[in-house]
Amino acid sequence: MSTIPPRRPRAEELYNAHWRRSSYSGGANDCVEIADLGAYAAVRDSKDLGRSPVILGRSALDSLLGHCDDGETCVG
Q1: CA distance 74 to 35
Q2: CA distance from start to end of the chain
Q3: What is the rounded CA–CA span in Å between residue 33 and residue 31?
């Protein structure tokens, strides 16, 4: 029995998404924003809203955030 993965978000869903800014932002538009899209999450750079956001599955986002919470360097 196979399961069909959820469809990726459409452009209008990204446009209308509720974007949240990092609590570490100083308000200078120089941080990461994230939007919860159900089975997916979108991540974008607040300095360049014209760029397409990165779409991550929930498990990939949870893994990334888990590494950051463990004190690993999350930024290059």
Answers
A1: 19
A2: 41
A3: 7
Residue with tokens 């397409």: 52
> What does the block give as tokens for 10?
């459409």
Q: Are 13 and 19 in contact (CB under 8 A)?
A: no
The burial of 57, by beta-carbon neighbours within 10 Å (0-12 exposed, 13-18 middle, 19 or more buried), is given as middle
Q: Residue 11: helix, strand or coil by DSSP? A: helix
What is the chain's pLDDT, residue by residue, as a tens digit (76 residues)? Answer: 556 667 778 888 888 899 998 777 666 667 888 999 888 899 988 888 888 898 999 888 888 888 776 555 565 5
The number of residues in the chain equals 76
The one-letter amino acid code at 1 reads M
Indicate the DSSP class of residue 53. P
Whole-number Å distance between alpha carbons of 31 and 25: 6
